[in-house]
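Protocol step 4 of 5: obtain the predicted structure for the target chain.
Materials: sequence only (see below). No template structures provided, no constraints applied. The aim of this step is simply to have a reference model before the mutagenesis design in step 5. Sequence pasted as it appears in the construct record:
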Amino acid sequence: DRVIASEVSLLKAAVTDSAQRNGLYDYVQGRDPRFAADYLGNRILDRVDVDVLLLITPDGRLSYGRLRPEDSGVTGGNDSEGAAALAALLDGRSLAGGATHAGGASLLPATGSREAIGGLLDTPRGPMALALRAISRTDGTGGAAGTLVMGRFLHPEELSTELSILASTVVPHGSGPLPLSTDLHSLAKALTAAADGTLLVTREEDMSDFKLFRDLAGKPAFMLETRTPRSIVATGRATAKLLLFAVLVTAALMILILISLVRHLVSEPLHRLAAHMLALRETGELRPTPGIHRNDEIGVLARRFSDLIAARDVDQQRLERLAAAVEHAGDAIAILGPDGHIEYVNPQYEHQTGLRLEDVIGRAPAHGHSADATYKELWQSVTSGVTWSGMLETRMSNGIIRYEEVTVAPIKDAADQVISFVAVMRDITARRHTEAELRNLSAVVGSTAECIAMLNAEGRIQYVNPAYERSRGIRSTDLVGKAPAEVIRGRDDPRLYGDMWRTVALGKTWHGRITTELNSGRIVTEDAVVSPVFTEGSAPSSYVVILHDMTESLRLEEQLAQAQKLEAVGQLAAGVAHEINTPTQYVGGNIRFLRDAFTSVTSLLGEIATMVRGTKNGSIPTADLARVLGAADVEYLKAEVPVAIRQSLEGIERVGEIVKSMRELTHPARNLSPVDLNRVVESAIRFAGGEWQGVAEVSMELDPRLPLVPCLAGGINQVIVNMLVNAVHAIEACGAERPGRIVVATRRAGDFAEIRVTDNGSGMAEDVRARAFDPFFTTKAVGQGTGQGLAIAHSVVKKHRGSIAIDTEPGRGTCFTVRLPLGIVGDGASTERDASTA
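Step 4 output (structure tokens):
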């Protein structure tokens, strides 16, 4: 029994060590084919000294098998059939001859098992000690790749040499090639019923001990018989009787002496030590340990006991501190047994969940509102010995949903087995709400059109929103950490900024208007609100700056002021003269042309009359008549005289329209009608042709898809003419340095129609641009301009509820942009849009 048990124990240790090898695991998985050649086979057989080495897949298939030949002096044999038969026997499959286990049960370990199985097995070659273990990775990850089997045959001659009794022989029965004889059947039956499976049989020639051995399935496998010759046994019995008598007498005397010594040296000190231990257990009172100063075993025991008491006190104090920490922890803590039922919860758990201790002890934690897969992952992790952390959504006893950060850790014993679990739950509901509010606030700040900047307590920029970056044309990374004065060019009095910082430093909000020059050179005016932010203490921890761009609003206010001034100032006759001057010039030119043409016609008629009087028979020679007509250029006069007359009439009509427009300036008409704006532009260009001819080249870029625009055609014509005249004058002011160019364009811009008149003239300075629409303001010399052209244009556009803007740069030219609304007719009534623009 001792030898066989030692065999099994050594095999279990060997199979445990070998099964936990990553190389073996990868080989069985098909990932390391060289492992078999390098490490298995004879190398393992010889090093571990086993007769059998098998690798069995989870489905019972033999993937590798080595069986040492029966001649133990020869190594390197390969009995593939024997290995396959042994694998089939372990898997519960019958062999030839009907050999199997009870019920055909498999002896292979369970897939998830990490324990080695050791025992005996009856094989066709005889009894064998073996060990089996599931093959796994050393880090515990992944499932079992199969089963590793190691075994040694129980050779009778080797067992005989291990016996410590008189010379004897070990004979196997009912195993391998030695089947159970008929006369031993009843003996085997009796051994099966015996508690220890052992029986002594006395025969004439010898005295034999029989012992029955069972295999891993608990099935009787084989018997071992130990035979001792009878003559040796008889001598041994006589000698044993004498020795026994002498031993008994000597023992009796020694016992009496020992009893006395033990009583004095051992029993009484042990009794005192035991009494001290009992008193300590019952009262807890610490007293000096008796016998602690002795130099014998009692003294050692007393000192060890005293050390244990001191260690226990240290552990007790540590446990008390840990218990106090758990009891007063701000996080909910629960301890669960191996079955997942609650064994302990701290007070914070009761407060956080609304459940009392007595309501949850012995019960499994309630399933929260998180996904089922989350809880499945949690328990799979902790039951496999891995700590799990994550967020769970739970419901309190009052129905309120809460969010918790949960950490569940397995608690293991000295054997690395999970015996319980500890769960730590931190309520993060308020934090999640705060984070959601911060995300919403961040989205609002990031999406608002207002420019927002955050400054720290030292006044350095911490954050700017996207609107700030877009308006300034600068990235936040170029601003953060810098003082505003380092990256912002203010155009205001420094005293304004000093007043701002003094106000916010006192914890007050500052309101005001500031002017800033952007990187592009554009100057913007903004309404600013600077507020201190308090997080702790009485001093501001940061400042928030909100800027609203007022540049365009101020420009519109300026235009409104101009219009209000125009309403108060009457248009003087000088303005009328300025506006009538253009049509009257080319009307006068046409009349002079007609005068010259009439002179030519009169001269022609006189010559013809003379020729008629000088003819004798009343017939004028054709050659003479052709000469006279050619000299008078009759064909030219026939083509140009009607044109001059028509243009003169148009000029007179235009003078009437100008006078009418002047009258409407003080009494604006309200009846607007849909007009083809492109036709109005073309008419205006023809009308002002006398001004730009010889000075500039005029081109048109007209949008053919522009819908009809509700307007006063004459007024808009006048606006275009005035802007053309100003463009011509601006080009003339440049001299002959470059060819003059004027572009008149129309397009639709949303709900507005736009007219743009662009020239490459002299441009305007900022102070001139600011007063361009003022009545009577002009930059021309006295007598060369009255300053009414753009003022009247502004009034006409205002009447249409539109706008007129100037984009100019000295030396590079000017662009006038007139915007007219498309949806206003008469007194604000809406009009139908052109079908083509629907």
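Step 4 remarks: The chain has a mean pLDDT of 79. The two ends are 105 Å apart (CA to CA).
Proceed to step 5.
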